[in-house]
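Work Package 3 committed the consortium to producing structural models of liganded targets before the mid-term review. Because experimental data for this complex are still outstanding, the team generated a predictive model from sequence and the ligand definition alone, so that downstream docking and mutagenesis planning could proceed in parallel. The input record is reproduced below exactly as it was submitted to the modelling pipeline, together with the SMILES string for adenosine-5'-triphosphate.
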Amino acid sequence: MSIELDSVSFAYGRRARSILSRMSYTVPDGLTVLLGPNGAGKTTTLKLAAGVNQPDQGTVRLGGLPSHSKAYRLKVAWMPQTITAMTGLTAREQVAYTGWLKGMNRRAAWDASAEALKQVRMTEHSDMKAKRLSGGQLRRVGVACALVHGAEVLLLDEPTAGMDPTQRRIFRDLVLGLASREVQVLLSTHDVADLAEEADHVTTLTEGTITFSGSTADFLAHAPASVPEARRAESAYSALTGYRATR
Ligand SMILES: Nc1ncnc2c1ncn2[C@@H]1O[C@H](COP(=O)(O)OP(=O)(O)OP(=O)(O)O)[C@@H](O)[C@H]1O
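The resulting structure, written out as tokens with the ligand in place, is given here.
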């Protein structure tokens, strides 16, 4: 079962220009990296896929469930670009609270919170006030919030932005582990080197248009044969979009 955007159009406001026009896209299985430059429409696409925003035209569905339904939102978890630490709450309380908001009872949310924090390797910080966590730690709490209610699809918006190389590595291993446990993951980034080579699929978005969606092998095949292995993802991205990759 996959999220399907069917001929979706979206503008921020009635008179605003359309950010997406008749976009059709099926989120692939496994781990997909959504690549695109600043302003390409990655966040907009993820918010539509999460049911946070509704399309002006077209439909967003998961196995027949429309994205405005509660059942849809229970199957899908979205991690926004900015995670807000809740004043006064510990990391564990913040994650449990998110589970409770998703409809879990208090006990289940409390237990699931510990499990989700374990998955993101934050157990030792679970009793720290969320406000006192570092940016990278707070992002991991954000992932735990996305994991807490056992969603089938995780939509992660620029989850590695602002992380140092060590945190990036921890995060990369975490995401790879999640996707291998049969959770569908769609992760946006403008850092091509991030995960593109380890992902199962790559989708590129340029000015609101999907310019490529396919297997990672097919994506990398767009790099000229002469390009060294370490630069293949960046080169394939430039060949497909005309944009230089950023780091
Ligand atoms: N709330 C908003 N109101 C009006 N316009 C918006 C709003 N959010 C985004 N936009 C516009 O929509 C377009 C796509 O933005 P979006 O955030 O989806 O891109 P993105 O690919 O996620 O970019 P970034 O990598 O910078 O996060 C941009 O032109 C942006 O200015």
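Reviewers should note the following from the model. Helices lie at 42-50, 70-75, 91-101, 106-119, 135-147, 165-180, 216-220, 232-241. These observations will guide the Year 2 experiments.
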